[in-house]
Amino acid sequence: MIKVGLGQAEGIDTLQTVKAAILKCEHQLQGFQPLAGIVLAANNFDHQKMLDEINTRFPQIEMIGCTTSGEFSSNYGFSDDSIILMVFYADDIEIK
Questions:
Q1: Which of 4, 44, 85, 89 could cross-link 32 (Cys pair, CB 3.0–4.6 Å)?
Q2: Dihedral class, residue 30 (left if φ above 0, else alpha if ψ from -120 to 50, else beta)
Q3: Cα 72 to chain center, whole Å?
Q4: CB-based contacts of 7: which residues, under 8 Å, 6+ apart?
């Protein structure tokens, strides 16, 4: 089984925005802990603070990501001041 959580949140405060994106992912994962994630974020955020919060909520996660000049997801649409977090859980696949 593979589950995916997708959270996009818009804002100017790094901690509030990443927490909102994480909550959306957690809701979609329904209690499963993600193994890997992709984060896309506007360059105006404090990226270390953002990654620290993701790692606090998901301590075993493998992350990759980049800054953007505009983010887009099917759940939220376009924004140039948002964080998109996509996380993956799999019960029989190792993600590294």
A1: 89
A2: left
A3: 13
A4: 20, 21, 22, 23, 24, 25, 28, 75, 84, 85, 86
Gap between the Cα atoms of 46 and 8, Å rounded:
16
- Strand runs (DSSP E) across 1-96, as ranges? 2-10, 36-42, 62-68, 71-73, 77-79, 82-90
Show pLDDT as tens, one digit a residue, over the chain (96 residues): 899 999 999 999 999 999 999 999 999 999 999 999 999 998 899 999 999 999 999 999 999 998 876 676 766 677 778 899 999 999 998 887
Q: What is the pTM of this model?
A: 0.90
Residue 5 and residue 29 in contact, taking contact as beta carbons nearer than 8 Å: yes
**Residue 58, token pair as written in the block:** 């998901």
Q: How far apart, in Å, are the Cα atoms of 25 and each of 3, 44, 69, 91?
A: 10, 22, 22, 17
